[in-house]
Structures
1.
Amino acid sequence: MSLPKTLAEDVAKNLVMVAKLLDDEPERAYGYSRVALRLASRVAAVREAAGFASYAVGKYAEALAEFRAARRMTGNSELWPVMADCERGMGRPERALAMAGEPEVQKLDRAGQVEMRMVAAGARRDMGQADAAVVTLQSPELASNSIQPWTARLRYAYADALLAVGREDEAREWFAKALEADQSGSTDASDRLAELDGVEFVDALDPEQAADDDVSQPVAETKAEESKVEESKVEESKVEESDAEESDVEEPETDDLPSDEDMVEPEADDAEDVEPVAEATSEGQAVKPDADGDDR
């Protein structure tokens, strides 16, 4: 189906954003897919993109509907494995397992058949058939030494299935093989290996670790404040010692000091007696004879 040029450009822009954001920001990718779907719901590529965006955010029923619509429009079966996985996501592993036995699987290319095998193994585990899941994944593709885009994921799925049945040593071996093939970092095989080896990695940007650091910060500040308080106490102690030394100097006892009642002011007559003495002294100085005996 062809679209007017302007509309086609708008749809294309939204589909580009879906592809760009699908892995890292699936919620935003989903939003762009809904816009494209409103603009061109009869375009198979739009329905397929909308299906993958819905699948990425866990809207499996919605995704399955979009995949079925795209399959009807195109007539091909390449979406068969992801459609089966949507059945698993909706809690219907038996339907996913039934789809693994349908003729459509034979129409898939090698990558599609490997994908379908992993979905079937997952359905087996959902149904509590862990040993059957291990057997389901055993295939020529798993034994091959060639590295394909799906190799790391297949080996990882097999290692995880082995771990589920308690075959830890074999699981470790296959996690290592998955890591060896995982050139794009599509799995967390390295973390699983570290977990099996008892190694724990601490993320420097871990929010919980940051929260612990925030909690410890006030403790450091409290210690600093306590140190300041201790210094202040030391200074106060020095001041007290200095005051104590000064207090050792003997002060006159209050009993030896005359009281206010004992301090009697001279009476007026005494004051007159004192005053002439001062005048006489002054006059005596004035009439003091010189060395030659003359008075001046």
Note: The chain has 14 helices and no strands.
2.
Amino acid sequence: MTALITALAALGGGLRDRLRDVRDDPERGSLSVEQVIITVALIGIAVALVAVIANAVTSRSASIQ
């Protein structure tokens, strides 16, 4: 039982320290506009690639039958 209480106390202390760090630096972890634009562009490229592959597979499967 003592080991469990010790582990919980250590976990609580670590979480308290992390929460204090986040409160001290509100900019930490925020996304910049450039990161959002790059992410949207990569998602658009991925969607276009999936559409091209799905179209190719559909046309090839139609020619097999």
Note: The two ends are 68 Å apart (CA to CA).
3.
Amino acid sequence: MSGTERRGPVVESVATLAELRERIPAAEGVPTGVPGLDELFFVPEWRDGRLHRRPLGGIPRHAVLQVTGVADTGKSLLVEQYAVTRAAAGETVAFVTMESPAPFTAMGLRTRATALGLDRAAVERRVVLLDGATHTVLARDLAALLDTLAFAIRTHRVCHVVLDSLTGLFEAREMLARDVVRPLFGFLKTWHQTALLVSQKRSGHEALTAEAAGGYAVAHILDGSLVLAKHPVLSPQAARLHRVPLGETVRLFRIDGCRLAGHDTRTHHCEIGPDGILRIGPPLTRTVAGGEEEAS
């Protein structure tokens, strides 16, 4: 037995549901600023002996979700839209950038706020940037990152965290992904944060699975995954299915599990408009008997 282990029961870890009643968070949606996404989450409720879906109106508050996909699928756009939308609503966001230095990330956030028609000055007051791209100790030393995040949360009264990207914390040492993700998840839960963590896929991964760099450990630990994908349309059959010309690139989106709320399980089309805004569209069409197509 190591010196850090203790004998006997951990009594403080045991509690009844009644004892936890006051600590159970209410089911509340957080609007994301991504058109078409907020409608995909709901709370199942029984009324008059029948199951009903109460729209949540956003991702669940206090959820820690992975946003995953290969390059150029819209992951950073999604989290940037979320950050500026929450900031414009008066809630402070800590945006941890591991890929691009803070001034360049700030440029993208300002662009997203303008495209969404938000008050840019209000957004700038409520987004706190943590620059892990320049100050690489934040990527190499998890304790330093968590201490810095705790400082930002206390100082600026942060209630949302965006991390772009989680993969930067275990780059080239993916066997350690679980040892990074689990303490980070526990930290965000302890501080009652709602968080979106960007996670890169390798090109060899199946496009619409939750698996990312670091393996399934990432999706297994977090509360759920938002998966983005893209496919070149190279056959007449695919062109008919997606209703686009041959040679176009189709973007897809799905929610791969969410512990804290019900959610639409279908695969949806999505698009990045000329304004640089990611939008979630209708579910994929499906082929029916007779060879015709209808919306699923």
Note: The two ends are 57 Å apart (CA to CA).
